[in-house]
Amino acid sequence: MPMSRDVNHMDSTTPNLDKLLSGDSQNNIAQSVNEVVDVCHGMAKESGWWNDAQTGEPLRRNKGELLCLIHSEISEAMEGVRKNLMDDKLPERKMEEVELADAVIRIFDYAGAHGLDIGGALAEKLIYNAGRVDHKPQQRLKEGGKRF
Fold first, then answer.
1. 148 pLDDT higher than 50
2. Scanning 8, 27, 72, 142, which has its CA 20 to 30 A from the CA of 53?
3. 9-13, 47-51, 72-76: the lowest-pLDDT one
4. Under 8 Å between Cβ of 52 and 45
5. Which of 145, 125, 146, 114 is nearest to 41 (CA)?
6. What is the mean pLDDT of residues 19-30?
7. Dihedral of CA 32/34/35/37: which sign?
8. Using CA atoms, how far apart are residues 69 and 63, in angstroms rounded to an integer?
9. Which pLDDT belongs to residue 138?
10. Which residues have CB under 8 Å from 133's CB, separation 6+?
11. Cα angle for residues 10, 14, 16 (degrees, 5° grid)
């Protein structure tokens, strides 16, 4: 059974951005995300995606190909949205959310394979975006402001 998720948009009280952006929260976010990176990459390695299927030798996978596979999951999510489909493998879930999960799994596998600190980058990017003037509603409403 899918976990329920509150889909209300973030406002000034939910969540508390000061708490979210504190040093302890940043470290917790980074550590938690990087733990999931290790799980995703470990599962991909155990499933043989990083070794030649016939020889067992390690593969040097093409970064461009891997990034395109991430993009393909996003495209599949779009198709789920466009057709309002449920997922064929997890039929109690929307295709949109399952394909986005697949994209995250591929991103985390990529990060694990290439030694990227996605958790740290995510925590830092959240802080950076919180202070961006062009992300504020009043700026977005101005002529030439970001609409989406």
1. yes
2. 72
3. 9-13
4. no
5. 114
6. 84
7. positive
8. 10
9. 86
10. 139
11. 120
Length of the chain, in residues? 148
DSSP 8-state secondary structure symbol assigned to residue 6:
-
Exposed, middle or buried: residue 83 (CB in 10 Å: 0-12, 13-18, 19+)? exposed
User: In the chain, what is the straight-line distance between the N-terminal and C-terminal CA atoms, in Å?
Assistant: 32
Tell me which residue of 34, 114, 28, 31 sits closest to 70, measured CA to CA: 114
pLDDT at position 19, please? 73
- Encode pLDDT of 30-60 as tens digits: 999 999 999 999 999 999 999 999 999 999 9
> 135 pLDDT exceeds 50?
yes
3-state secondary structure of 11: strand
Give CB contacts under 8 A, 24+ apart, made by 129-135: 130/17, 130/21
Nearest-10 crossing angle of helices 23-46, 118-130: 140
Q: By the 8 A CB rule, do 96 and 77 touch?
A: yes
